[in-house]
Amino acid sequence: MAESKIKIRLLKSTIGVPLKVKKVIFALGLTRPNSEVIHPASPSIMGMVAKTRHMIEVTEI
Questions:
Q1: Is 42 helix (H, G, I), strand (E, B) or coil?
Q2: pTM
Q3: For residues 22 and 58, what is the distance between their CA atoms, to the nearest angstrom?
């Protein structure tokens, strides 16, 4: 069976954000506000999503 995927969209700018959170945002592949990426819903990606929940929007595909 195929692995589920999620689409992640950055809602806020990373200006003034702590460096740890900024690195997680960039590790997800998000570079600027309103940029979107698609990732598999693996435990490591879901952990990154949980850490930056206040800055992103997540939808299941």
A1: coil
A2: 0.88
A3: 17
